[in-house]
Design a protein that fits this description.
This protein is an alpha+beta fold. Helices cover about 50% and strands about 15% of the residues.
Length: about 150
């Protein structure tokens, strides 16, 4: 009798645990699908705001250049969500890096669009809040294409 009770209890616990595991796996799959959808929407919106030349640059290297509205300096925005803005010299080599991002858990396309708009419309304010970092030891004259990320 005790063995039968123990068997039925462990079977119930196993089935409950297994059902919970399936629910967790289903939720993870849905979350991944939603994140992929958000990333795709972010890149679609970014591409709509890029000029033809910027779109060509992005397709070739997953980065594009913008010109600051006040200083007329050139900046390269590289695919990503942080430490992805580089000021360029006259030869197209990075001389200083900047990190500034909007609040919220935004996908890369949305962050890059915000950075583009900030530099093109209010460069001084964007750089005032940015964390600066030196860019050295990188060959960014012709940056290698970044790996495509699924998000």
């Amino acid at each position: 009798m005790f063995a039968q009770l123990l068997f039925s209890t462990t079977r119930y616990l196993w089935n409950s645990w297994h059902a919970g595991l399936r629910r967790v796996q289903d939720l993870r799959a849905r979350l991944k699908t939603l994140e992929e959808l958000r990333a795709a929407r972010g890149l679609t919106l970014l591409r709509e705001w890029l000029s033809e030349e910027q779109r060509r640059q992005y397709d070739a290297t997953q980065s594009f250049e913008v010109v600051g509205c006040e200083s007329r300096k050139r900046y390269r925005i590289i695919h990503g969500t942080a430490t992805n803005v580089h000021e360029l010299d006259d030869d197209g080599k990075p001389i200083m890096g900047f990190c500034f991002v909007p609040d919220g858990g935004l996908v890369a396309g949305d962050v890059m669009l915000a950075q583009k708009i900030a530099l093109e419309t209010n460069e001084r304010a964007a750089l005032a809040i940015a964390n600066k970092f030196p860019v050295h030891g990188r060959n960014q004259e012709n940056p290698p294409p970044l790996p495509r990320r699924p998000y």
